[in-house]
Structures are given as structure tokens and as C-alpha cells.
Amino acid sequence: MxxxxxxxxxxxxxxxxxxxxxxxxxxxxxxxxxxxxxGFKGEIYPINLKAERIMGLKCYKKLTDVNGNIxxxxxxxxxxxxxxxMEQAGQKGIKAGVIISGGFREAGxxxxxxxxxxxxxxxxxxxxxxxxxxxxxxxxKLCASWPLINTEGSIGVISQxxxxxxxxxxxxxxxxxxxxxxxxxxxxxxVNEIDxxxxxxxxxxxxLISLYIEGVRDGRKFxxxxxxxxxxxxxxxxxxxxxxxxxxVTHTDSIAGFSEVFDGICKQYGFINAHNIRELYDFSxxxxxMKRPQGNKVLIITSSGGSGALATDECIExxxxxxxxxxxxxxxxxxxxxxxxxxxxxxDLTGDADATMYKYVIESVAKEDIDIIxxxxxxxxxxVAEIIIDLxxxxxxxxxxxxxxxxxxxxxxxxxxxxxxxxxxxxxERTAAVLKKLLNYKKGDIHG
Amino acid sequence: MxxxxxxxxxxxxxxxxxxxxxxxxxxxxxxxxxxxxxGFKGEIYPINLKAERIMGLKCYKKLTDVNGNIxxxxxxxxxxxxxxxMEQAGQKGIKAGVIISGGFREAGxxxxxxxxxxxxxxxxxxxxxxxxxxxxxxxxKLCASWPLINTEGSIGVISQxxxxxxxxxxxxxxxxxxxxxxxxxxxxxxVNEIDxxxxxxxxxxxxLISLYIEGVRDGRKFxxxxxxxxxxxxxxxxxxxxxxxxxxVTHTDSIAGFSEVFDGICKQYGFINAHNIRELYDFSxxxxxMKRPQGNKVLIITSSGGSGALATDECIExxxxxxxxxxxxxxxxxxxxxxxxxxxxxxDLTGDADATMYKYVIESVAKEDIDIIxxxxxxxxxxVAEIIIDLxxxxxxxxxxxxxxxxxxxxxxxxxxxxxxxxxxxxxERTAAVLKKLLNYKKGDIHG
Lengths: 448, 448
Fold this sequence. Notes:
2 copies of one chain form a homodimer. By secondary structure, chain A is α/β, with parallel strands linked by helices. Chain A is built from 16 helices and 20 strands. In chain A, the strands form 4 sheets. Chain A has a 7-stranded mixed sheet with strand order 9-8-11-10-12-13-14, with helices on both faces. In chain A, strand 15 (297-302), helix 11 and strand 16 form a beta-alpha-beta unit. In chain A, helix 10 (277-289) packs across helix 16.
């Protein structure tokens, strides 16, 4: 019997790092360092045969030397030493383990992987990996991985590539948006994408699942699990070309057949199909934090005429349609805005725009026949975040925010909006792409 | 007669800032501050009616109060005061002026713009703007614009949108790539894109022209100028849709007809057509610093299997073809690389890869039937820049570099490569997109 809960991974109160190291650059150093620096509140036990203390923490020679409870162990040691460590873990009563070490199935050592799995089953230990990049869960200030990710957000990442997972985490962290969790699957000896989708589906810190997957062992069960999950799921899957499928088979020994039917499955069941890493991130941002607009009529409000023109092309090509302002509202805006403003769609406030002008315009058009208010900040405009945060939820329309050309001011304002759960996109084309995807989403309303 | 040279803009030895301000946030503050902080070596004269000193510099009440020569003046004052200032400039013998102020043609004041232009013609003053975001020229440490751009590179930007220009500059600066110059055109009362393309064509600091253009007044002359220019020109032009064309007409009063035939013109004459801001930047990077590959056979070398699989799909979709390694080289690599490495295409060095392994592999395949070596660094891999810098030029193949998932290490290594003129792209899809564009380039060999 396998215990079904993954609680010990995400909500562990104590962690042992087997193979913790004080040598900068070693993975055993990086992971212990990140666990400490992410602000983990529970006990941390470095396990190292030689050191007395690492990073100020007392070291232990083996897991069974630790007096207190260990909820989660992270293994960063040569693969052949892992069966013996698993036995100690079983005796210690540990219930969850992350094996970062490689040297198993992916290196042709299927037997060693099976041996480790058998010990895990014997002691009811759940295993993540082997050959993975660990996991992060920001609500528990847990980062048993790299790079250091500790900004709390709503996106839950599951990835069969450590690099893709890391990149999504880095972008989310750099923009102040954050993630709820990141799990790198590795060889999936035990815990796989199905377990994790199930877990995220009922995790109230996760609003959306962001999935990089190369293949699944049980396609039927995978689809059924996704169908049951009432949170949006964005999926990036390589293998669109024959050559790509060959690369996938080599990388993770995934079943090639699934690739050919994957696009159809996404369309049929309403999973959100991303074409590349950037789309995986952008669509995750959009579906985690935005609602599906009620229709496709868009009003563009901008301080940059050029960005407005580019956004217009991109909106039209994305299937949106330019909303018309009523004569009444046009007249009101003309009377109250500086005469050089262009009262049209795009509505161009020009380079003299400030936060107050944006607020005035958005409030003035809130009762118009518009589904999406697409706001472009095209200059270093300060204090616009407060305006948007204040308006969000007060107006019927969906707000789509694009900020570019603003350097440091842009970074600061974007951070503020992200902290309040309002996604900001850095170019007009990326904003239009998420609007298209939101409008075409079929599974039902996002966020109930 | 109009003097044809734009020398006084780019290689000025002295600048007057009319409307310089000591109030933070004002454009007159930002521009003076950026001129000083970019490291301009010549004389700087703030002109301000009230202040004695601004930012430590002596102020003058008017241009004619300055004793020394003034090569370039930057005007940031209300539009109606500009004719009088132009007269003083003429008396002072100033030969170049940037009018940042708005309130001219774009605000319906065509007559005022004509009046200013007439004074300029009378005194042989060349004018940039009005209603523009100024210019930067890094070889002269000149930044009479915002944001502060002072990293020297090879890309020359000409833009009819201040925001698009600023964003390209910001990206180039953030990545340590830099630009040679950025010019914001504004209303183009005098200096226009044709003058600037001509200037950049013979400027030995500029390798490539990056152009955002909404419309041209003389389409025939524009095309002839581009055809004569033997540097690659990347062009982003909005107006692909009817609605976009409408927005363009409103923004810069551009001739709509040109939009419809623009794609055809690019194809016919070999101008590089960018679809959005990101492409404008990426294609500019690629064509400024890379050569056109001799063919489409690519070898992908990666530390991330997932990124390798994604890159494979994207390369195939971009029209590339996966190169085959000879049996001999395969055998050699198998004998000398760790056993878990996948000797295939993608060639996966796995997460244990280091700089030395990349160097060994690239050197080993240099005589193979391969046109492009597409290197993916998919982890925080230190010291890889040195390897690439060392190999560049020593091998026949074109190197395409993608770095992702590496956080701070990635930033540092990317900077080092950019400093040496080797462009690095942050995702597999962006790398594939530039390879496609390079391969399809028809105008002739880039860089002679």
C-alpha cells in the first residue's frame, strides 16, 4: 500500500539534507543554503559524514542519529549509496524523500531505481525523483531546490524538466509575482504528474497548474485527472515534430504516441496549450489572475501612440474587436482631458499622461459597451499601480495591463500590481496573446 | 539650403539644455541628469531663467549668454516660446537642435511647426523633432533622452515612437549588449528616417539599423535609401490591419497606403521585417552580431533535456534540419564523456555539464557536416562565456547561444558574452526564430 498523501513534501515541519555540503557550488551546498534562506521555520538537519557543523547547523552522520522527527529528506549523494540510506530512513519513520541524485533509470540503471522504490514501498515512503531538481512550496517557506524561490503566488508548477521549472520560477520571482510551488518530477519512480495534479487541485494556495510534460505513463488516467481538476491547467509539451518526439523519447523515455494526439486532447477537454516556455509562463499568469472577458470588445488606453498602434494590430489579429465609445462619453472626455489627447480607440493620452488621467478615463468608460480595458503604460509612469489596484473589481470590464519603456519605475509599479494579484505584461504582443487565449478558453468560467 | 550633415547631433562637443530644471521628475531635470550621468565629456550649459546653478553646473538665462561654442541645443520649454529661442540659437551660430517639447503639428499647431522650421532653415540649423524623446549616441557618451542609455553597442535605433525606442534601449542596456545610438523622430519637421539611415550607413560604430516606422512621406526615396545602405535593416511597422492603419494615421498622420504594400517591399528588397517589439530587438541582436549560417544543418548541445526537446521542435518548425554526427565522432565522444551523456542530436550533457565539457564537444564536432552549433546552457553554469568567446571565430560553424534557468549566473555570463559581441537569447523559441530569420535573409551576406 502506498500512502496517498503528499503532505510531508509540502507541509513538512522538519527536513534532513543527506549530502549537505559546505563547499560553495556543490548541489549539497546550494540546496541547504536555499532551504535556510527561503526562511523555512522548521528543524533542518544536515547529514554529512565528516563535518561537525555546516552553515551554523549541527551535522549528523546518519539519519538515525537525529533525535527529533524528520518529515522530509532530501538526498544528494551517489546513487549506489541510496538503498542503504533508504533503509535508515525507513527505520527512522521518514515518510517523504526527494532524490536529487542521478544515476538511475536515465543512466540505464533501472534495477537500482527499482531497488530504491521497493524499499520505499516497504516503509511507505513517498519518493520524488530520482534525478530531479527538488521542490519549492512558498506557503511553507520551503525551497529544497535551486534557484532560490520564495515569493508567494498562486501558480503551481509541475515539470519534467528542471530547467523549465527553474525558468518559470525565476521569471515569477523577478517580476514579484511568485508561485505557490514548483515540483521537478525527474524519473517519476513513484510520485508523478497525476499525484501532483490531484494534490494541487485541493491545495488552496494554488489557483492554477502550470505543467511541462514530455510524456505520461497512463494517458487515460492523466486525462481523467485533468478533467476532474477544477483549476485551469496550462500545458507545454514538446514533441510536435518527428524530431522533437525522438528527442523526448531519449530524454525521458516517454511514449511517443501521446504527442501526436496531444493538441486534439487539449482542444477537446479545454486544457490550455502553450507553445513555448514564454507562453507557459504568460498563460499561467493570465489564467491564475484574470477572468475570462465577457466578450471581445476592447478599448485600448495608452500613453504611447506607437504601442497603441502595435496593440491594435495584435488585438485584431487575436480576434478582438475595437469598441466604439458613445458620443456622450467622447464629448465628456474631450471636455475634460488636455486638448492634445486623442479621444479615439486607441485612446492616446500621449506622453504627458499621469496616473490621474488614466483613472479618470477608466472610470468614465466603465459603463460603455466594452468587455476589456487594455491599459498601456508606455513611459516611466509613477503611482499607476495604486490606480489600477483601486479600480480592479470596481468595474465590470476585465483589465489587461501592459507596461513598457518604463525602466526602474516600470519594475516598481509592476511589483506593486503583482503583489495585489494583478498581472502585468511587458509588451503589447504578449498582452494580446493572453487575451486571445482567455477568450478562447472553453472549459467553463475561470475562478467559478 | 539645408546642411546635410548630422554630425552636430552625434559628435557634438558642447550641449545647451534650454529648460533645464532642478525639479526631480520634470523632463528638464531627467534629460540634464542623463547627459551628465552618461559621462558626456564636453561642455554642458543649462539654460534656465531663474536658477543660478543646477546639478552643480552654472546656469545661463539665454543661449546668447553662453561664451563658448554650442554644438547642440536641447529644447524642453513650452512650444510657443520656441521661435524666439530659435532666433537666439541662430544668432549664436548653433547648428543642431532637439525639440523635445510637444504642442506642434501633433496638437494641430502646424503653423507653429512651420514657423520654427523656417527659422531653422534661415540659420541652417538642423532640427530633430519636435515632440520627440531626444537622442543617444554612446560612442560620444551622449544621452540627451530618457531612460539613461550609455552601454556601447552596434545597434542603431531610429523610432517614430519614443516608447519603442526606449524599450529597445532598456533591453539592450539590461543585457549588457548596448546600442550605438537611439533617435526618436517625433514629428519629423526636418530630420527624418531617410537622413538617419544615410547617417548610420556611414557611421562606423553602427553595424545594423533597427527601425520602428509608422509611415514615410516619400516612399520611393525611403526604399532607395534602404537599398543603398549596405548594413542590415530590421523594420517594425504597425498597420497590418485596417484598425491598426487607422491608429497609425491618428498617431503620426502617416500615409495609410504604404502599410498595405509594406510586407511585399520587405520581401522584394530583403529588408528584415519584424512582427512585434520583441522581434525588433531579437532580430537586431542577431543581424548585428551573427553571420548568416552556410546551411540549415543544426546540432543542439544542451545541459537540459527538456530545453533540447523544445529547441528541436522549434528548429524543425523554423525550417532547420537536425545534423547527423559521424560514427567516428560519436565513438570519440562516447569514449571521453561521462556515460550518462546522450550522444545524439540534441546532444545532452545533462545537469552535470560544465564549461569544459561544452568546449570539448564543440571542438570535437567542428569538422562535422554541421552549419549551426546551437548551444543551450540550461542551468546556472559558470565560466561558459570564456569558452564561447575563445571558440568564436575558431570554428567554421555559426554559434547560436541560448541561456536559461541560470538566474544570477546566467546574467553574469550573458553580460560577458555580450561585451564580446556574442548575442545570447533567453529561450529556445527566440533562438530558433532568429536562426530562421538569418537563414531566410536574402539581401546578401551580412558583414561583407
